[in-house]
Amino acid sequence: MVQYIIKRILWLFPILLGVSFIVFTIMYLSPGDPARIILGEGATEETLQALRADMGLDRNFFVQFFNYVRDVFINFDLGRSYVSRRPVMGEILIRLPNTVRLASWSVLFSTLVGVPLGVVSATRPYSKTDNFVMTISLLGVSMPVFWQALLLIILFTAILGLLPATGFTTWQHMIMPVFALASSSIGTVARITRSSMMDVLDQDYIRTSRAKGVSEKKIIFQHALRNALIPIVTVIGLQFGVLLGGAVLTETIFSINGLGTLMVNAIRTRDTMIVQGGVLFIAFLFTIVNLFVDILYAYIDPRIRSQYD
């Protein structure tokens, strides 16, 4: 198990390197001049050329990418913002708590709602209850997050006046952003739970337990659900990464001072260092969550744990 964890940690470097290359290439090919952004429209061409040379922007693509990779992976330096001139890591860490809180609460909410809905559907397949749950799940998956967020603001803020539309300081501020971000994940978790539970409930040992007179509640929650957890845990872990990315739009709509808002503003001003650092940091968190999920497999399913003994 220790060797497996070490191997997965080592895989972080090529994954992050690939992410760095993709994001760096996109930002390099994007229109705009970081030197002009820093100095303003009134700067002379000589001043712009001097700043480009000082920042290394006058060099070719491969030299710039090599210097960036060296700073990130050797010096652990994500660079400085072109706009604020502050360290990128500092800008990220200031706003990261709000993003993590939003994603974490959304994952928790989607799990607490999606798993029971999936279990109910699996125990009553093709019934009216099952059709209703799957319809709601499909609607949640199909509706864009930004559209749901706008509808929630119109209903609960503009019409009813019950909830604040901006900020993320109190539980009242958290209700609409968490619901908007978690709604698609609820549908995904519910559908995966239903599919996994139906596969397990069709196994021979489940029929044997019923023949022995074991209560249906014990069969579902002690036997079936535990054996159906592997795909459920997988999709929940993946959803955390998806929600970190989805937080970009949600934070912008609800004016939450998080990593998503930082990156949107950086894209508008072509602050390349912030965009690259933000995407790289989210990719790092995503891979760490996946590693944690893989380790969790061994504690859920003894068959997986036996492979590492």
From TrEMBL:
<feature type="transmembrane region" description="Helical">
    <location>
        <begin position="274"/>
        <end position="300"/>
    </location>
</feature>
<feature type="domain" description="ABC transmembrane type-1">
    <location>
        <begin position="96"/>
        <end position="297"/>
    </location>
</feature>
<keyword id="KW-1133">Transmembrane helix</keyword>
<dbReference type="InterPro" id="IPR000515">
    <property type="entry name" value="MetI-like"/>
</dbReference>
<protein>
    <submittedName>
        <fullName>ABC transporter permease</fullName>
    </submittedName>
</protein>
<dbReference type="Pfam" id="PF19300">
    <property type="entry name" value="BPD_transp_1_N"/>
</dbReference>
<feature type="transmembrane region" description="Helical">
    <location>
        <begin position="102"/>
        <end position="120"/>
    </location>
</feature>
<keyword id="KW-1003">Cell membrane</keyword>
<keyword id="KW-0812">Transmembrane</keyword>
<dbReference type="InterPro" id="IPR035906">
    <property type="entry name" value="MetI-like_sf"/>
</dbReference>
<keyword id="KW-0813">Transport</keyword>
<feature type="transmembrane region" description="Helical">
    <location>
        <begin position="228"/>
        <end position="254"/>
    </location>
</feature>
<feature type="transmembrane region" description="Helical">
    <location>
        <begin position="174"/>
        <end position="193"/>
    </location>
</feature>
<comment type="similarity">
    <text>Belongs to the binding-protein-dependent transport system permease family.</text>
</comment>
<keyword id="KW-0472">Membrane</keyword>
<feature type="transmembrane region" description="Helical">
    <location>
        <begin position="132"/>
        <end position="162"/>
    </location>
</feature>
<feature type="transmembrane region" description="Helical">
    <location>
        <begin position="9"/>
        <end position="29"/>
    </location>
</feature>
<dbReference type="Pfam" id="PF00528">
    <property type="entry name" value="BPD_transp_1"/>
</dbReference>
<dbReference type="InterPro" id="IPR045621">
    <property type="entry name" value="BPD_transp_1_N"/>
</dbReference>
